[in-house]
Amino acid sequence: MAQRVGLLEWLLLDLASPPLDANLKAVTKGGLRVRRLKPLPLKTPKGTIIPDWRQHTATVLVFLHDAHCHACRQVSQQYESVKELFAEWDAEVWLIWRGERVPESGNYAWDESGKARREWLLGDSAGVVVVDRHGVVVRQWDASEGKGFPPPEEVLVALKHLAVQCPECGVPDGDWASLAS
Predict the structure, then answer these.
(1) What whole-number percentage of the chain has pLDDT above 90?
(2) What burial letters (b/e) apply to 59-80, b meaning 16+ CB within 10 Å?
Protein backbone atom coordinates (compact mmCIF):
# COMPACT_ATOMS: atom_id res chain seq x y z
CA MET A 1 0.00 0.00 0.00
CA ALA A 2 1.40 3.40 -0.95
CA GLN A 3 2.00 5.87 1.85
CA ARG A 4 0.17 9.19 1.51
CA VAL A 5 2.70 12.01 1.55
CA GLY A 6 1.83 15.70 1.72
CA LEU A 7 3.38 18.20 -0.67
CA LEU A 8 5.76 19.58 1.96
CA GLU A 9 7.00 16.12 2.86
CA TRP A 10 7.37 15.32 -0.81
CA LEU A 11 9.54 18.39 -1.26
CA LEU A 12 11.59 17.44 1.77
CA LEU A 13 12.04 13.73 1.03
CA ASP A 14 15.43 12.74 -0.28
CA LEU A 15 14.13 11.48 -3.60
CA ALA A 16 16.27 10.08 -6.39
CA SER A 17 15.26 12.99 -8.63
CA PRO A 18 16.86 16.40 -8.12
CA PRO A 19 15.08 18.76 -5.70
CA LEU A 20 12.50 21.13 -7.15
CA ASP A 21 14.21 24.12 -5.58
CA ALA A 22 17.94 24.11 -6.32
CA ASN A 23 18.39 27.02 -3.89
CA LEU A 24 17.12 24.99 -0.90
CA LYS A 25 20.04 24.37 1.41
CA ALA A 26 19.42 21.86 4.15
CA VAL A 27 20.97 19.03 6.11
CA THR A 28 19.91 15.49 5.20
CA LYS A 29 19.09 13.33 8.22
CA GLY A 30 17.23 10.07 7.95
CA GLY A 31 16.10 10.80 4.39
CA LEU A 32 14.62 14.19 5.30
CA ARG A 33 16.14 17.58 4.66
CA VAL A 34 15.63 19.52 7.86
CA ARG A 35 17.34 22.61 9.25
CA ARG A 36 16.29 24.26 12.50
CA LEU A 37 17.42 27.83 13.13
CA LYS A 38 19.13 28.69 16.39
CA PRO A 39 17.70 31.76 18.12
CA LEU A 40 20.18 34.60 17.68
CA PRO A 41 19.93 38.24 18.79
CA LEU A 42 18.97 41.03 16.38
CA LYS A 43 19.01 44.76 17.01
CA THR A 44 15.81 46.75 16.57
CA PRO A 45 14.92 50.37 17.29
CA LYS A 46 13.43 49.12 20.59
CA GLY A 47 16.58 47.23 21.62
CA THR A 48 17.95 43.74 21.12
CA ILE A 49 15.48 40.91 20.51
CA ILE A 50 15.67 37.18 19.97
CA PRO A 51 12.96 36.06 17.52
CA ASP A 52 10.39 33.64 18.94
CA TRP A 53 9.27 31.43 16.08
CA ARG A 54 6.35 30.08 18.17
CA GLN A 55 4.36 33.32 17.91
CA HIS A 56 3.21 32.67 14.33
CA THR A 57 2.65 29.78 11.95
CA ALA A 58 5.48 31.19 9.84
CA THR A 59 8.13 33.88 9.95
CA VAL A 60 9.49 35.37 6.75
CA LEU A 61 13.08 36.57 7.12
CA VAL A 62 14.10 38.92 4.31
CA PHE A 63 17.86 39.45 4.40
CA LEU A 64 18.83 42.72 2.73
CA HIS A 65 22.03 44.64 2.13
CA ASP A 66 22.30 48.06 3.77
CA ALA A 67 20.07 51.00 2.85
CA HIS A 68 22.62 52.19 0.26
CA CYS A 69 21.44 49.30 -1.96
CA HIS A 70 18.65 50.61 -4.20
CA ALA A 71 17.40 47.11 -5.10
CA CYS A 72 17.11 46.15 -1.41
CA ARG A 73 15.13 49.31 -0.65
CA GLN A 74 12.69 48.36 -3.41
CA VAL A 75 12.42 44.78 -2.13
CA SER A 76 11.77 46.05 1.41
CA GLN A 77 8.91 48.21 0.09
CA GLN A 78 7.45 45.22 -1.77
CA TYR A 79 7.48 43.05 1.36
CA GLU A 80 6.16 45.91 3.53
CA SER A 81 3.22 46.30 1.15
CA VAL A 82 2.17 42.63 1.54
CA LYS A 83 2.74 42.39 5.29
CA GLU A 84 -1.01 42.44 6.04
CA LEU A 85 -1.67 39.79 3.38
CA PHE A 86 1.00 37.56 4.95
CA ALA A 87 -0.55 38.21 8.37
CA GLU A 88 -3.85 36.76 7.10
CA TRP A 89 -1.95 33.46 6.87
CA ASP A 90 -0.44 33.97 10.36
CA ALA A 91 2.99 34.96 9.06
CA GLU A 92 5.25 37.67 10.38
CA VAL A 93 7.74 39.50 8.14
CA TRP A 94 11.16 40.64 9.35
CA LEU A 95 13.38 42.82 7.17
CA ILE A 96 16.93 42.13 8.32
CA TRP A 97 19.45 44.72 7.19
CA ARG A 98 23.21 44.54 7.20
CA GLY A 99 25.15 47.50 8.57
CA GLU A 100 24.10 50.55 10.53
CA ARG A 101 22.07 52.46 7.93
CA VAL A 102 18.52 51.14 7.75
CA PRO A 103 15.20 52.71 6.71
CA GLU A 104 13.05 54.17 9.47
CA SER A 105 9.79 52.35 8.74
CA GLY A 106 8.63 48.77 8.96
CA ASN A 107 9.26 45.69 11.06
CA TYR A 108 12.99 45.66 10.68
CA ALA A 109 16.13 44.64 12.48
CA TRP A 110 19.79 44.66 11.71
CA ASP A 111 22.44 42.07 12.15
CA GLU A 112 25.57 44.02 13.05
CA SER A 113 27.92 41.06 13.39
CA GLY A 114 26.46 39.14 10.43
CA LYS A 115 26.19 36.00 12.55
CA ALA A 116 22.43 35.59 12.08
CA ARG A 117 22.80 36.09 8.32
CA ARG A 118 25.59 33.50 8.06
CA GLU A 119 23.79 30.95 10.28
CA TRP A 120 20.23 31.43 9.01
CA LEU A 121 20.89 32.18 5.34
CA LEU A 122 23.98 29.94 5.16
CA GLY A 123 26.01 32.70 3.56
CA ASP A 124 26.69 36.40 3.61
CA SER A 125 24.50 37.48 0.72
CA ALA A 126 20.84 38.45 0.47
CA GLY A 127 17.80 36.20 0.34
CA VAL A 128 14.53 35.07 1.92
CA VAL A 129 13.96 32.29 4.45
CA VAL A 130 10.54 31.00 5.57
CA VAL A 131 10.60 29.40 9.03
CA ASP A 132 7.77 27.50 10.70
CA ARG A 133 6.72 27.83 14.35
CA HIS A 134 9.36 25.27 15.36
CA GLY A 135 12.22 27.21 13.77
CA VAL A 136 12.48 24.75 10.87
CA VAL A 137 13.34 26.20 7.46
CA VAL A 138 10.47 25.50 5.09
CA ARG A 139 11.74 27.40 2.02
CA GLN A 140 14.81 29.42 1.20
CA TRP A 141 15.68 31.63 -1.75
CA ASP A 142 19.16 32.90 -2.48
CA ALA A 143 19.16 36.38 -4.02
CA SER A 144 22.88 36.50 -4.77
CA GLU A 145 24.67 36.46 -8.10
CA GLY A 146 21.89 38.11 -10.10
CA LYS A 147 19.19 35.61 -9.07
CA GLY A 148 17.10 38.33 -7.46
CA PHE A 149 14.62 38.10 -4.63
CA PRO A 150 11.50 35.95 -5.00
CA PRO A 151 8.36 37.94 -5.63
CA PRO A 152 6.13 38.14 -2.54
CA GLU A 153 3.50 36.10 -4.41
CA GLU A 154 5.89 33.14 -4.56
CA VAL A 155 6.56 33.40 -0.83
CA LEU A 156 2.81 33.63 -0.21
CA VAL A 157 2.28 30.23 -1.88
CA ALA A 158 4.69 28.66 0.63
CA LEU A 159 2.92 30.46 3.51
CA LYS A 160 -0.51 29.28 2.39
CA HIS A 161 0.67 25.71 2.14
CA LEU A 162 2.25 25.86 5.58
CA ALA A 163 -0.87 27.43 7.12
CA VAL A 164 -3.13 24.54 6.10
CA GLN A 165 -0.86 21.79 7.46
CA CYS A 166 -2.16 19.47 10.15
CA PRO A 167 -0.24 20.49 13.28
CA GLU A 168 0.27 16.85 14.28
CA CYS A 169 1.28 15.05 11.10
CA GLY A 170 2.19 17.88 8.73
CA VAL A 171 -0.08 16.64 5.93
CA PRO A 172 -2.28 19.32 4.36
CA ASP A 173 -5.84 19.24 5.66
CA GLY A 174 -8.33 18.36 2.93
CA ASP A 175 -7.75 19.82 -0.49
CA TRP A 176 -5.05 22.34 0.43
CA ALA A 177 -4.89 23.78 -3.07
CA SER A 178 -8.49 24.96 -2.85
CA LEU A 179 -8.01 26.22 0.72
CA ALA A 180 -4.91 28.18 -0.21
CA SER A 181 -6.28 29.82 -3.36
Answers:
(1) 35
(2) bbbbbbbebebeebeebbeebb
* Structural contact between residues 172 and 53, judged by C-beta atoms closer than 8 angstroms: no
For the CA atoms of 11, 14, 20, 22, the dihedral, rounded to the nearest 10 degrees, stands at: 120
Q: Nearest 5°: phi and psi at 79?
A: -75, -30
Residues 6+ apart with CB under 8 A from 172: 6, 7, 8, 161, 164, 165, 166, 179
Q: Note the pTM of the prediction, 2 decimals.
A: 0.76
Nearest residue to 131 via CA among 144, 116, 151, 143: 116
Distances (CA, A) of 151 to 6, 25, 76, 154, 165: 24, 19, 11, 6, 23
